[in-house]
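Structure tokens
________________
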Amino acid sequence: MRIGFDGKRAANNLTGLGNYSRSLIAQLALFYPQNQYLIYTQKIKNHPQVEQLFKNKNVEVRLPDRPGWFWRSSGIKNQLQRNQVDLFHGLSHEIPLGIQKTGISSVVTIHDLIFLKFPKYFRFIDRMIYKIKSQYACKHADRIVAISECTKRDIISFFNIEPDKIRVVYQSCDDSFKTAPDPVFNESVREKFKLPPKYVLNVGTIEPRKNLLSLVRAMKLVDADSKLVVVGRQTAYKDLVSKEIESLNLSDRVIFLQDVPFSELPAIYQMASVFAYPSIYEGFGIPIIEALYCGVPVIAATGSCLEEAGGPSSLYVSPLDHKALASGINQILHHPDIAGKMKTEGSDYVKKFNTEIIAVDMIDVYKSILPAKTKELC
């Protein structure tokens, strides 16, 4: 079978949607090598994370044979037909206009509808574009993949989609987070970034929705020998966070890291005492499963899907309750038995996101919409 993918993120983005796209395609290529995986993109970023994907012999890139502004949304259809693609998967909220008329089966992944749940975090024009694209895709794709039960509920609520059209297929994370710690390498990373012996870790874009302010306020109530390490791209929200850090006299207890090589990120997770993720709303929460795979106790926020990612052994608090957040962090730091139990049970829970399980689930989605003859080739 020949499967085409919207490769804009897979070939260019180094975080979030890019990681999801590359991870999924690599999993499918590994466990279902009989298929051909064609990645359609207008350009390719020169970076090891991207180059690694194209080392798979059954993964090929397809650049536009007729480049233009509307190639991705419309012109791509002719190319898909010439390449005899059986199924097209829009990996991030959109599919080509009119693909339902080509005879090519289609799937769209919807990661979240945060732009509708919390419109204040988005510019008006961006909200409109996101809504038009995602609503069209949900209406016209043969099947919708939601990355969590929470996202599935939002799709049904906002777009009035029949539940049977939606399948929940969770995400996994890069296999580098699933390997055993290398003490020598980890210590070299600690020295490089001057990481303290004991720290609370937070990973993600520094933006209002991720709610770093609550975590900073919580740190004022956390043991003074523990520091906060924040890894993520900075936005204007960082200025607000910095002012709060200064007002609370926490400047010597908060460390910001940017442009961390992806190969060194697992080590930063593995050496953390606690992973804290007080995000107000998420579609899934990949950093949580990265932490669980790395054997780190997790405390996260209620109110969206983070309980799905973290499982029953992680701790959860209201996202704006910094005192409860501090109490949970201190509980983990003060009680090695609790921390040990969270690590063990978290490691067992996160196995449900192993790559082979995700690949099987996604192939089952594809088979559910393919003609019988093509289905046998999966």
